[in-house]
Specification:
Helices cover 6% and strands 65% of the residues. A hairpin with a 3-residue loop joins strand 2 and strand 3. With 209 residues, it is mainly beta.
């Protein structure tokens, strides 16, 4: 599911200029069932607010989904950031949603607790749903190679009022590509509530300006 370990530390590093940009790109290949799809999240972080867009696309079927949101950082300490979010979305089937929710991030030298999605969704002329995603990250050591390696559990749960609960859960192995930076690559294995396995590649890039 969607996440952003390290976002808070990037904000601290870019404090002098005030802005941090993250590009989070993922390619998911189901072992069986639906065709591969691509996910991209672009997040612009300022001191007291953030703007975020998410796009998913399935080239084989030409299906797509877009969402755009803005957030106000209602709690911001050295280790913890809580943001109140407002989001709108649409997709290739013409489904439009309005959403409200929050994001929660807490960092320490060896771990990041990330809840990038916790929200209530209302489909226009349709049902209400709830979505929650958690994507913590745990480094494997305090220094050297092990500090640049991490395990990243990933859980996404979605419940629409008139449909069964759906979920995706798994874990990734991460490698921080630049020493002292938050850029990383990840390979993950995930399972869905439809009993389908997926393999996902991920690349996270960060910029300060």
């Amino acid at each position: 599911g969607p996440d952003d370990p390290g976002r808070k530390s990037r904000c601290r590093r870019s404090k002098a200029s005030g802005y941090a940009l993250q590009l989070d790109t993922r390619v998911t290949v189901p072992i069986e069932g639906p065709p591969p799809f691509v996910f991209n999240r672009t997040t612009l972080n300022a001191k007291m607010w953030l703007a975020e867009s998410i796009t998913t696309a399935t080239p084989e079927t030409r299906a797509w989904y877009n969402e755009a949101g803005v957030g106000l950082k209602v709690m911001r300490t050295t280790q913890t950031t809580v943001s109140a979010m407002g989001i709108v979305s649409n997709d290739s089937k013409g489904v439009r949603k309005a959403m409200v929710g929050m994001q929660y991030f807490r960092t320490s030298p060896l771990a990041t607790i990330a809840v990038p999605v916790a929200r209530l969704e209302k489909t226009l002329n349709g049902p209400v749903s709830i979505a929650v995603a958690a994507n913590p990250l745990f480094r494997l050591g305090r220094q050297g190679t092990m500090f640049r390696l991490a395990i990243s559990p990933d859980v996404f749960v979605h419940k629409t009022s008139d449909k069964p609960l759906s979920w995706t859960a798994g874990a990734g192995l991460d490698w921080f590509t630049r020493k002292g930076k938050a850029d990383r690559i990840e390979i993950a294995a995930l399972k869905t509530s439809l009993n389908q396995w997926q393999v996902r590649g991920r690349y996270v890039l960060n910029f300060s300006f």
